[in-house]
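Record type: monomer structure entry
Structure origin: computed from sequence
Chain ID: A
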Amino acid sequence: GSFKLGIEFVGWGAEDSRYFHPFGPHGRNFDVVPLHQHWLRARQMGDPSAFDDHAMAWHLAKAGKFVRPVADQRSVLSTFDYAYHFDATLYAAFLRRFAEARGVTRIEGKIVDVAQNGESGFVEHVTMADGRQFGADLFIDCSGIRALLIEGALKARYEDWSHWLPCDRAVAMPCENDGPPVPYTRSTAQEAGWQWRIPLQHRIGNGYVYSSQFMDDDKAAEKLAGRLDGKALGDPRLVKFTTGRRKAHWVKNVVAVGLSSGFLEPLESTSIHLIQANISKLIAFFPDRDFDPATIAEFNRVAVTETERIRDFIILHYKLTQRDDAELWRYVAAMDIPETLQLKIDHFARNGRLIAREMDLFAPPSWLAVHIGQLNFPKGPDPLIDYRGIDAREWLGKLRGAMAAEAARLPSHQAFIDQISKA
């Protein structure tokens, strides 16, 4: 694994643009008016400084540095967060060992039949190809896109979001490292979608997420292979999907977790979060054998709302594009979007205000990074700033200087990894 300070987006707002979605805020607010409003006013007054340069995470990322945040709020090193880059196969194997060491029994086999109670419709047992049967009170469907129980047996139905998120294919191909791993993911907009680059200690993960309406599979694999930073470590692996969600994540005595509950493309790396979120909700709403309908309804309300909030944030990246060089980008720039997202775009376009809603996984700093990074500059700053009497240009300059100085003295990302454990 390696550390992740955020995501660099290349070519999303315009073909030659790039910006950084940092983990953590841009600086720290020093006034009743948010910091970004003072930056907008400084920009109006001719200050050319980039908004990214007010984020400690970006100063570290671009310099290839890493430390953990400090607790002292007086330090700029308290103004960022981090996540991880994982090898998903190794991580899954680790979780398997962890679970089995604590008493979980793992049964290998292929399910060939699902038996339901004739009166209630509840799943009673599953039958394996070798004839073994396994019954339970509660089933958790982790069967991936196939959704063997929640859809195959219980017909939960699927809400298709491909009219907002038209990418429906991904081709993945790892390659050798071209140097020490950088502490961030890169997402590069391409002809028919976008390409990910995820640096690990032992390889680089690469993939091309694209729309089959605008590019065929062989061409996508060819494009990806030609854009690798090192020697390929395997053949291209194709994944087909339809973005959307189950209309219900919990039906009768079956709870869907992971891809069986729906799919959102990996643009903001939300898949593992959504797995964990449904596990947490199941713990919070754990049923007895009566399976109270009110409990199931509330679980589904929360699960659906959270998924739709994430959906809106991902759509934002496409909708705000100014590219018109390819069919995909012309389509997404012109498409109608959910009212919940249009509301947020309209508020920011007026006065740079960020409207939060219940169950937003992505906090205002994340929305702010994409709005400004993709050139959605408001008509003017918050009117309240006119009554503050503050010229913040000097303060913003000192903030940038302090962040740059801290980044310069810190160890490299690779050196920090080496201090912990050499892979």
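Annotation 1: DSSP finds eleven helices and 18 strands in the chain.
Annotation 2: The CA atoms of residues 144 and 259 lie 4 Å apart.
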